[in-house]
Design goal:
With about 150 residues, the protein is an alpha+beta fold. Helix content is about 15%, strand content about 45%. Strands 3-6-7-8-9-10-1-2-4-5 form a ten-stranded antiparallel β-sheet, with helices on one face.
Length: about 150
């Protein structure tokens, strides 16, 4: 039997793979997908973390991630708003296979270790992945779109 944590991990992985490959209805950014492990697709997704810099708004509310500065593989200078600033314990970026992965851990009142695990889709210029609400121990599928300057 699969544990709850393993089921959530597998579901998240499938959603992220689908999101990154951009499968599904091309006119609906939130719909995802199938897997294409073709080498050219992998190479196209190897992008600079600087592409992540900007303000990103979650599609289902006033939640905003502001990425100010990136490194090739490591810490990020990030702010998170709901709509007021929320303290961030950790924020980092890493390259995983064909995807740029962002991990953000929130530590504040109402955010006792809640986390975002997001993947960047260069094809859609979106962030997608999961939000773990530590207070209620539940995972949610989330998408962020780049805000206009």
């Amino acid at each position: 039997m699969c544990s709850e944590k393993n089921r959530v991990f597998l579901a998240t992985l499938l959603v992220c793979i689908c999101f990154i490959t951009g499968c599904g209805d091309k006119g609906t950014p939130s719909e995802g997908p199938a897997v294409n492990a073709d080498a050219r697709t992998l190479a196209e997704n190897q992008i600079s973390p600087e592409k992540l810099i900007g303000r990103w708004q979650r599609r289902d509310g006033p939640y905003v991630i502001e990425i100010r500065k990136t490194n090739d593989d490591g810490p990020l200078d990030v702010a998170y708003y709901n709509p007021k600033p929320i303290n961030i314990a950790e924020a980092k970026v890493s390259q995983e296979e064909a995807a740029m992965k962002i991990f953000i851990e929130l530590r504040d009142k109402g955010y006792p270790g809640s986390t975002y695990t997001l993947y960047y889709s260069s094809k859609r210029d979106m962030l997608g992945g999961t939000y773990f609400h530590a207070g209620i121990k539940q995972y949610f599928q989330v998408f962020f779109v780049r805000m206009k300057q």
